[in-house]
Structure formats: structure tokens, C-alpha cells
Amino acid sequence: MMKLVAGFWQWMRRMVSRSLDFLYPRYCVFCLQDIRATDYLHICQSCRDALMPRNSMNICTHCGALAKGFSEQGVFFLQKGASCSYCRKRNFRFRRVKCLWNFRGLPREWIHQLKYYNGEYLMADLEKILSEYSEWYEYLAHAILIPVPLHWRRHWQRDYNQSHLIAHAMAKISGAFVIPLLSRCKFSHSQTELARCERWNNVQGVFTVNRRARGIDRSRRVILVDDVLTTGATLHECATILHENGFERVDVAVLAHG
């Protein structure tokens, strides 16, 4: 009986959804194509195809950068699992990075829509995209997800923290827990407004571990979540604060590297 009832409600939801699509057609937020024939709420199949994940070949597993150099014979790439020269120079305090996209083209538009244009509605499609790749479940499962915090002034201006939304999307597809263990205790310039060399000084001393960390097992694996990793300065500073407070297994998950 319960199966019949559940099946009836699933059928009703499909009928209601199709009726609404007929009356109020849905269009892709990026290219304005009709998306009634897709499984996504806000993107068409063409745009979905442009949001394919990065090839894991030639990716530095430590910082997530596309690592490429030159030898006498021409181009050479990192061996699997190796760190790039940028990592070795910076000595990041996080162990490894999982990254979905390169920060260019449509992924860049996606993140800007989320970050600057009230793009919370994109989270349902992000959950679906992440759920299609088993390696993301394996990477996130059983961890504590820690969104990179915003200062309260910037949070007030934007009305939400995009890293918090991304962390919850990742939690839904993996069963991980979102616990905002970090707070931003000082207001600083946006990293996007600064040159790469200035970003390291800009984030020094701006993060602190908050009271939610009380009672958390320090041996648990924690994953810092952010939208984009560029220089790694922000995530390095967050990881440093976590290490200073006893968290040794610190990893990173971001939507894009750029």
C-alpha cells in the first residue's frame, strides 16, 4: 500500500512539473535555450556539457593546479600524485585539493552568478552535477566540511556566504557534516581586488576557531570548502589556524582553480 501511495505522489509531481513547464517554460540561465527536455532546473544540456570536470591527469593533487613544464624534449607533465613547484615553494598547510572545474569559460560565469548575482538557485543543479561523479562522494564522505567564512559586514552586504551554500550541496551528496568551525575576526579587502603577491598579507590573522570547535574530535578529517582557489592564500591561512588548534587532517574542496 505504501509503495502505491509513494508511486502515486511521484506521478503527481511529474504531472505538476510538466504542466508548469508547459505554462511557464524554463530557459537556461546562461544561454536562454529551452530546458524542458533536461534533468536540470536552470541549465541546458549544451551548458551542462561545458561544465565537465577537469581531467585528473596533470593536476597537482596538493594544490589542484594544472601543472605543466618543459623539458629538452618538449612539454612534460607531473607524475600522478606529485606536487608542483608552486606547492613546494609555498609549503601549504592543507594536504590535498579536490577541484571540479578550471576557472574560465562557463564555470567562471557559474561562480560569478552564484557569488555576485543571488545565484543560490543554482545549488540544486550543483548537487546533481556532483552526484554524477563517484569520486566526489569518496572524497567528501565521513568528513567535516568547513566553509571559508565571510566577515559579518560582507555577509550582511551579500545576504549569504557562497562557500556555506557549496558546503551544504557537497554534504547532501556525500552524507558529510557541515560545521562552520571558523570565524572571520577582522575585515579585509576582497582577495579579487588585490595582486597575487598582496593576497598573502591580506589574510594573515583574519581567521579564528570559534566555539563550535569545542568537543570536536581533533583526529577527524576536515575539509575546507570555498568557491575558487587562486593563490591558495586564504585556504592556507584557514588550514594554519586549524592546525594550531589541533586539527591535523586538513584537506580542501573547491569548485574551481584559477
Task: Explain how this protein is built.
With 258 residues, the protein is α/β, with parallel strands linked by helices. It has a domain of 165 residues: Rossmann fold (3-Layer(aba) Sandwich). Helix content is 37%, strand content 16%. The strands form three sheets. A five-stranded parallel β-sheet has the order 3-9-8-4-5, with helices on both faces. Strands 1-2 form a two-stranded antiparallel sheet. It has a two-stranded antiparallel sheet with strand order 6-7. A hairpin with a 2-residue loop joins strand 1 and strand 2. Helix 5 runs parallel beside helix 8 and helix 6 crosses helix 8. The protein is globular. The N and C termini lie far apart (53 Å). The relative contact order is 0.14. About 4% of the residues have low confidence.
Question: What descriptive keywords fit this protein?
Answer:
258 residues; alpha/beta; Rossmann fold; two-stranded antiparallel sheet; 10 helices; 16% strand
Quick rundown:
The chain has 258 residues and is an alpha/beta fold. The protein has helices at 2-23, 45-49, 85-90, 106-116, 123-131, 134-140, 152-158, 162-174, 199-202, 233-244, and strands at residues 68-71, 74-77, 97-102, 144-147, 177-178, 182-184, 207-209, 222-229, 250-257. It has a domain at 93-257: Rossmann fold.
- How are the strands ordered across the major sheet? 3-9-8-4-5
Q: Please give the share of residues in helix.
A: 25-40%
Q: What is the CA–CA distance across the termini?
A: 53 Å
| Residue fraction in strands | 15-25%
Return the string of H and E elements. Answer: HHEEHEHHHEHHEEHEEHE
Q: What ranges have pLDDT less than 50 throughout 5 or more consecutive residues?
A: 69-78
CATH class of the domain at 93-257: Alpha Beta
- Globally, the shape reads globular
The overall strand count is 9
| Annotated CATH topology of the domain at 93-257 | Rossmann fold
Number of helical elements: 10
The average pLDDT score comes to: 83
Structural class: alpha/beta
Main sheet: strands, sense, barrel:
5 strands, parallel
